[in-house]
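Hey,

Quick one before I head out. I ran the complex with D-galactaro-1,5-lactone overnight. Inputs first:
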Amino acid sequence: MTDTASRLLITGAAGNMGEMLRPLLRKPGRTLRLFDIADITDTDPEHEEFVQGSVTDRAAVAAAVDGVDAVLHLGGLSTEDSWENILSVNVDGTQAVFEAAVAHGVTRVIAASSNHAVGFWTHAEAGSNPLPGDVPPRPDGFYGWSKAAVEALGRLYHDRFGIDVVNLRIGSSFDRPPNYRGLASWMSPADTARLIEAALSDSAKGFHTVWGISRNTRSWWSAAEGAAIGYEPQDDAEVFADEFLADHEWSFDDPILQRVGGAFCDHPLGQRMR
Ligand code: 15L
């Protein structure tokens, strides 16, 4: 795969995914520019630089984007929150990133979307086929709605300005599955890094929307769109099955497993999750 990013900006670099990915995305000849409102004190001076700021500060975003080849946009609220916060951080914040990309001639943006952009799709609707990576939005809350808006902003900036955009509909990207639903939705740290490398490669030119999951035995979300950009996941949440299924039966009658978004579909709209 040809790498298009020798200078890669990671917004939200101090968050869960940013922290997990930094060591996996560092490589010779690449500088990671880390952007976050929170302080990052453990930068690797050979491979990383830190710019402190918020995605809600347009000047700070523009300065962070200036001089990079690609943006991995992880910054934003990562679960349900108030409408005002969601609009300001996730929607305005993402639009600021795309505007800055246009202004500074950055040609590739990888946007962290989420399974919650399409959380109300069900296993029953998928039927015997895996659910496509680019199935139309059916958000399961304001957070999921903002991720659908992020995806649509990507489409707009691709069509208007030709920016290469990859929307990642991330399942559960953590060290290990966070719960039994994760047996289907997990994406391991190593696979998350593989997906991002694929999204930076020449095979991902254009506009793509793909699931962000590992090759889980229990997944019912399509691997085809990821494969089309060169993503070859290696890990399988099945290694955690015994542990999680000790106190849970695996059944698609369970609404947590039946709907893409699981429990997010029942969480009160606009109520902060943390
Ligand atoms: C997400 O979008 C969240 O950011 C993450 O915290 C998890 O809840 C994940 O979805 C999931 O669905 O497991």
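The mean pLDDT is 97.

Talk tomorrow,
K.
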